[in-house]
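From the pipeline queue, job 12 of 40. The input is one protein chain; the requested action is below.

Action: predict structure.
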Amino acid sequence: MSGMSGSLVGKTALVTGATSGIGKEVAALLAARGARVACVSRSAGSVSELPTGGLAIAADVGDAASVAQAFERATDALGAIDYVVNAAGVGTPAFLEDLTPELWQREIAINLSGSFYVAREAAIRMKRAGSGSIVLIGSELAHLGLERLPHYCAAKAGILGLTRALALELAPVIRVNCVCPGPVDTPMMETELLAFGGTPEIRQAAIDRVPLKRFADPKEIAEFICFVLVQATFSTGNILNADGGTTAA
């Protein structure tokens, strides 16, 4: 059962990280409800199975100019943007002694600075239109620590403060919320598991730390995100966990 109901015909959304995983499912769900969707990824050609009426845009969310150009192209092609989800992200485990300044900056640029650049460009345009809703994507690791991921934890924790500050500044015209998923069965999760050893035992240990004893399906996280984005009209500045209970344990 979908967490979002009602038609979005006549509405426009921009989704980053639309190549795979959560971002791809968010774009598909919004398109299924009738929205025009700008699907942003590092390579427009990598956006497979583009939703009906969708637009593929290549952009690097870690680059402010690239993000601005993506919004300009989306607006020119699809009209004023009503909804924005920043699902682009990266997580590269590294031991502290191997965590170079370059790797640190890359994680901060894509995960934290990218969230700021996307929210800023969205807000500028939504203010002109008189309304809008933005969802940034945090992580259970914004609340918890995990070895070999201090750069990722720091970047995702920063998104929580960014969300609250933007929500206060942009109310009442624009809503800004943050969804923090737990472990999700995506290519990014598989890459991280491989970095930790990739054995069946490593995977099972990751599952065992989730009270619901499974990884989330990206579709169910997308449904939660879209509910917050579209239907939770009295919610702003909130940090909403969809983590199978990991932060409650």
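Job complete. The domain at 12-185+217-241 is CATH 3.40.50.720 (Rossmann fold).
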